[in-house]
Structures are given as C-alpha cells and as structure tokens.
Amino acid sequence: AYLKRIADGELTPTPVTNQIPALSPNNVHLMWIEQGDASATTDVPTNIFVSNFDGTGARMIYSELNASAMWLDDNRLLISTRKDRTTTLTVLHIIDGTIAQLGTWENLRGLSASPGGTPLPHARRCAWRHTWPHRPDAAGHPWRRHARGKPLSRC
Hints:
This protein is 0% helix and 40% strand. It is mainly β.
C-alpha cells in the first residue's frame, strides 16, 4: 500500500501488503491486519500491526486466532476475537501495551465502535420477535414491536 500526499501527489510506500490499512483518528498511526498462511495445516494466528502514519516504526502488537481490530480513539484499538460462537472484546492501548478485556458474548454480530464513546442506536432480536432501533425506556432497555404489529413491549 502507498500513502499519497494530496499537495503534490507524492507516493510513499508502507509495509502493508494485501490489506487496507486504517489511519488513527488523529492521523498519527497506521493499523493493519495480516492473516497467516491459509495453506498451513494448523491454525495460524491473525497478526495486528501498527506503525507511524508513514509506515515507519512498524511493529506487531497483537496476535490471536480469528482476530480483527478497529480504532476506538487516537491510541486505543478494540480487538475482537472469535472462537466458535463466542466473541471476546478487548481494548489494547498501543502506546503502553495495556490490555483490558471487556467481556465475552455468544452470537455477537455487527460490531461498531462509536467515535468519542457516544451511544449508538442498536437493534436486537428477541426469540421469534423482530426488533428495530428504537428509543430505550428509562431503564435503558430497547423496546420492540411484535412482527405482526402488536403493541410495543420490552425485550
């Protein structure tokens, strides 16, 4: 991958290969993920790398099977790892290397990080009923509407 300076069109090579890198919100760091050899006979971990925005100072900061990552803020990544149907979410600080595990969830799908930590609207599926993003009640529970148009009720 290359970085292109808009002012003069100069291209700067980066160590990223076959992946689309993600620039940190403050445009200081570059993050990318490299998958292991798919032809290997054993499980190969996913490696997460960071560097300066121009690709210098590249280093692997995390390695785990079935991992993915996204920026939370200027210096922290949200890392998601999946084994079978269980997803583990971890926050990794790229400067000091501290790791905080947020928890594990069954059947977690469609993960999004909110810039600045503001709440995101969400929808969840409760048993056989359909749900839509809706304003939560005073206790923070989302409301749902029965698929056949019955009155609103809580999940």
